[in-house]
Write a structure and sequence with these properties.
4 domains, UDP-N-acetylmuramoyl-L-alanine:D-glutamate ligase, Rossmann fold, single chain, alpha/beta, six-stranded mixed β-sheet
Length: about 525
Amino acid sequence: MDSAHGARSWQLSVGSLQSAREGSVSPADEHLTTDSIGSLVCGEVIRKGAISPVDILRVIGSDGMNTAHIRDYAGGRIHMIGIGGSSMSGLAEMLIDRGYQVTGSDRDEGYLIHHVREKGGRVMIGHRAENVHGADLVVYSAAIPPENPERAEADRLGIPSIERAYLLGQLMEGYSRAVGICGAHGKTTVTSMLSQILLEAGKDPGIHIGGRLDAIGGSVRVGHGDIFVAEACEFNRSFLRLSPTVAVVLNIDADHLDCYKNIDEIEETFGQFLSLLPEDGIAIGNGDDVRVRRQMEKLKCRKVFFGFSEVNDWYPADVEEDDRGYASFTLMHEGCPAARMKMGVPGDFNRMNALAALAAADALGVGAEEAAAILAKFTGAHRRFEKTDEIDGVEIFHDYGHNPAEMRSALSIARKRCKGNLWAVMQPHTFSRVRTLFDQYLDCTKAADHTLVTDICAAREKDPGDLNSGMLVEGMKAHGIDAVWTPGFDDTEAYLRAHWQSGDLVLTMGCGDINLLNDQIHRHETERRNGK
């Protein structure tokens, strides 16, 4: 907490806290300062019978102040710092659809920014203090630090500010069935699958996806039914700001170790997310994942398990797979056949994703046969094993996978499809992730014949000066991988064009701007063919 805020003594009434959980605040807590609330949130002075840290975060901001609410700024100007992110850009579009004036800023001209501009949003490149002048409310992503010049200026001017996850939670409040889909891997795909099922089944859902889906023409949809489906991200514990009535937990794995101590703390935080469910809520989880099952077993609400094992409520039987990895299977529910499912996306992990979406659809009132028929038409969200080109007989794909487990999964699909040499093009994402998962990166591309590694995408971080992609490449070579460090996109494209042959497949991977390499290759090929 900064000194300006620490010097203030913000009074918090018992009533406002009790609105989160009736009777959970001690009379002794009638007046809490920001310092004491901060201690509560950190778990330092939580007394038996007092409000839980999760409930505190749902009522107040992380700095201890009463949280501003988007409903109080109808028609006002909302300024969004980090507007080019996958979630922030979608929320910007949703706010514009609801009649708000949206401005925003980002460090770079990201590929999603033009969608915001097309909607009518005004976006500035670069973070400058004057960008927030005249704003009624500031929204910032979890990656934006307090010392950011726009956040600092908003604080100096007294402009209310909230973190992205609070905004998402507030937009979900008008829906009686709020679905939060979480997990280290697969969130966007499962959210997209479920969204397409609900939409085509006539449920008219509200939707917020961390990617773009052709079925809804983007990443967000303002629905008029009673269901809202959203990705619930564990980064910076953001998903604890939501109020789900249905929670879908896909897996628990080690990631975002820049804000978690270890996998045990990650698991505990997923448990806190599940504890947000009301007693009449529904928890849907991967029963094959020991950590997911352990946290779900603690709940009093309805529990539904999916997975490949027959111990789950939903599981596949009679699985068949073609030579490209596209599966067909009988969907089983509690030991009985419920539907025949033919996948429109390949890979074992997508089969697991489908089970999650089908189980959630059933819980939301869409029967298995109808849901399976709709899901068979699902061909993927953008940036999820998406084919972007075919040049000189070489297929070129992009995938959003940005940690070793996701890269292995994407390459497992590519390997089945590829007739010649498989080229893995990796853009490592954030220095902290590379540092904490360094050993796992060293063999995650072993399914490929050749691996190219670009410079690390720093994203929200600063270069520490003691870690680079050359170190990854040397470690990969020691593990028997044919790896080359191609720092920039020009270097990478030149190397590929000099070495690829007809029948090869190129897969670029990462959640930074590596997709722009695919765009660059396409643009250069178009210019070449047009004789420019």
